[in-house]
Amino acid sequence: MNTQHKTIIALFCGLSLVLASCHDIPDSTIEDQNSIIEETYAGGRLGTTFNATSSAYEDPTPAVEQSGMTAEFMYGEYFFERTITQNNPPFNGLGPLYVRSSCISCHPGYGHGKRMDRYRADEWGNGYLLVLTDQNDTYLSSYTGMPQTKAVAPFKAPIDENQIQISWLPYMDEWGNRFPDGEAYELIYPEVTIPESAFYVPLQVNGQNIDYSQLKVRLESTIGIYGTGLLDAIPDDSLKAQYLKEYQAGAVLNPAIWSGSTWASLYSNTTHPKRFTYALSRGPLQDAAGANAIWNITNVTRSDRRYHYMTAAYATKASQDPEVQAQFYNYFPEWNVTGNPETDIYNYLMNRELPVEMSKSDYVNFMVWHRGLAVPAARNLGDSTIQRGRKLFREIGCATCHRPSWTTGSDNFTDPNGFFTDGDRRLPRYPNQKIWPYSDLVQHRLYMVNDIRTGWCRTTPLWGRGLSYICTGSSDRLHDCRARNVIEAIMWHGSSQSDARWTVERFRNLSKSDRDAMVAFINAI
Q1: Is residue 24 over pLDDT 80?
Q2: Pairing between strand 434-435 and 97-98?
Q3: pLDDT digit string, tens, across residues 471-499
Q4: How far is 268 from 382, CA to CA, in rounded Å?
Q5: What is the pLDDT of residue 34?
């Protein structure tokens, strides 16, 4: 049976279950039932899969199948799932430095990374990226933004990951980790230490050496990648209207992103606002996390990026390393250009016109896959307990930041790299869809201990997260996986300074049955 037939059957079965559950709601109206059916399509008619099994995050959208892109989607999927090597086309080009040798090792089951007790790049499910800054939260300039812990011979890893230590520490909140009715919960957070001996390259900020005592180390985990094409299709004007609405309501917004009634900064050389990653470091999806990661996680070059993800500080250190010099020509004889290993090593590492390792067609297929991942349908929304949780979610204020729905525009997407043309027909599109990501796509602050860099973190979409355990084997949440379940995630929002403090206070005072109903709802969407 082909993918399209499976999807149609699943769609029919899913709708049947939804309609059946609607009839179980006492005093429900036709309008209620239509609303439930509408929200069940979390990714709209063009972006939803009714698969709720362990492969729920892996399906192509109906838009992919309707556009005849299924083969391209499947081929692009190979580049996410396969291990990248040095010399085996088409999955070649690994190194000279890298973060991981495959995408799926960071995104187990295509979802959120798993909470880990140690940092090992080769350990499946480790979605952690190191965040290295000085005490002012300024990134180290001598290390790449996503620090590398692996290298191919004869090079040496910038950081010896065997020396990285992750400790999980207990945290007691001001309420003693207990609800007013006596039910207890636990909170833990990570503390990461890396001894000075683990660093191969000097610690520098803006080219100036800093003392080891100024180093701050934190963790950020990968998030689910399904539905990113749909988020990209939300109009820029709609996103601006959301910022303006929150600003006018008195919300404190990141001044690096928003200033008064307009953007403080836009993405790169574009007119687009930033909408992807925790730090809102990326704009259009065609130059966002996935398009970036297929290059810099593995250091595989392509036609629009014929250079290594590399710092000059590392290139200088490696080029002057006698052990690297002694072996360099054995591994890279074609780079024996001057006969001076220091010069040739530096020029190889910093070259801007390296041979292309990922073909244009392979990259297009990868982006068909990346833009074409469906969102799992919401489940059991007709259940009375879940409906109670849905109502409470809105009443106590969760929906202020976790905005339930958006409507996509014409989806004439752009690419800052110029690789894809506006609205490129080679990629799937999602025009005029009502979608339910449950995020305002705006940054807020929770003031957690060992907080995310800068304290500003984009509201993570909640859609599909209830299937995390069956898809990834883990239900970990938040930017560093400190929350092991929904209750812990909510209570980490409760700091006295948190933007969500008022909502958490109201959540605490719900009855246990109401708290459980909210958890059931969050796991259903």
Answers
A1: no
A2: unpaired
A3: 999 999 999 999 999 999 999 999 999 99
A4: 44
A5: 87
Which amino acid, residue 459? T
Nearest to 101, CA basis, from 387, 297, 341: 297
**372-390 tens-digit pLDDT:** 999 999 999 999 999 999 9
What CA–CA distance (Å, rounded) separates 7 from 38?
Answer: 18
Q: Taking a C-beta distance cutoff of 8 angstroms, is the pair 227, 437 a contact?
A: yes
What is the DSSP code string of 327-369? HHHHH-GGG-SSS-HHHHHHHHHH-SSPPP-B-HHHHHHHHHH
Look at residue 496 and give its three-state secondary structure: coil
330, with CB counted inside 10 A (0-12, 13-18, 19+), is exposed
Average pLDDT, whole number, for the chain? Answer: 93
Both tokens assigned to 345: 């090593």
According to the model, what pLDDT value does residue 29 have? 67
Q: Is residue 2 predicted with pLDDT exceeding 50?
A: no
Extended strands (E) in 253-331: 258-259, 262-263
Confidence category of residue 79, pLDDT binned at 50, 70, 90: very high
Residue 118 has pLDDT above 80, yes or no: yes
Strand spans (E) along 334-479: 375-376, 406-407, 434-435, 443-445, 456-458
Q: For residue 363, what are its two tokens? A: 């990259």
The amino acid at residue 162 is N
Contact yes or no for 212/196 (Cβ under 8 A): yes
Residues in CB range of 40: below 8 A, 6 or more apart: 14, 15, 18, 48, 377, 378, 379, 381
Q: Closest by alpha carbon to 177, among 188, 162, 191, 161?
A: 188
Q: How many CB atoms lie within 10 A of CB 261?
A: 10
Burial 96-130 (b: 16+ CB within 10 A, else e): bbbbbbbbbbbbbbbbbbbbbeebebeeebbbbbb
* Residue that has been written with the tokens 């890893």 in this structure: 157
Please, are residues 117 and 166 in contact by the beta-carbon 8 Å criterion? Answer: yes
Instruction: Provide the 10 A C-beta neighbour count for residue 421.
Output: 12
The pTM of the whole model exceeds 0.90 = yes
What's the rounded Cα separation, in Å, for the pair 276 and 227? 12
Separation between Cα atoms, residue 294 and residue 367, nearest integer Å: 10
Three-class SS of 126-193: CCEEEEEECCCCCECCCCCCCCCCEECCCCCCCECHHHCEEEEEECCCCCCCECCCCCECCCEEEEEE
CB atoms within 10 A of CB 24: 11
Q: Decide if pLDDT at 256 tops 50.
A: yes
List the one residue out of 290, 463, 470, 295 whose CA is nearest residue 372: 290
The type of residue at 168 is W
